[in-house]
Fold this protein.
Amino acid sequence: MSAVPAEASGPREAAAAAPLLEALGLGRRFRGLAAVDAVWIDVCVGEIHAVIGTNGAGKSTLINMLSGELAPSAGSVRFAGEDVTRWSQPRRARAGVGRSYQRTTIFAEFSVLENCRLAAQASAPRPWLVWERAANDARGIAIAMRALAAAGLDGDAGRIASTLSHGAKRQLEIAMCLATAPRALLLDEPLAGMGAEETGRMLTLLSGLKATHAILLVEHDMDAVFRVADRITVMVNGQVIASDVPERIRNDRAVREAYLGDDH
């Protein structure tokens, strides 16, 4: 199945000719079990590419390989045209591959601003300034404030992170990711546990970020996926069974039988 309909044309299709992040025949086996099996997928600046599938389909394993946290058993990963398969997670992060996790990973006892400042510091450490007080780190604070503004949290900079709502904590995670200056964002279930209002705010945030980022979104909320995704890839038992624009995925018989059912 073609990822882009033949009649389509425009900026997104032009961008798709040069993907920022690619998985080329990517595979991962655990004691003989193929968690991910020969997956080809790409994501471009200017789009949200959603990956959906049942629990155990291999979605998180795929993200872990793309981010460098897990080495593939087969295939390769390319970023900005360069083979990064053997690059470590920190090296990929410094190159511009950012990610969030299923579980909240903020520093709950620190302020919202300090969470972002620490993320900025980690992405570009300056060990020669080890004696400088954090409050005097003008560069890190400026980066953190820009990231918080992009995530819609600049008004909460002084709050302790633990006092934020669940949805705002997820926004903070994305702000921390943005503080590392990523070009690609790998987001693993950022909508988990959110109500309708929080989901709406997050989808607005993601839609705004895609203009300058390539976004790979793993998500179980199908209503949200069909609202925000430009392309959708469906995984079943570690394999891709379809990859296309949302309307074609919605009407794909194999996808409906394997995952969506009759509600979509």
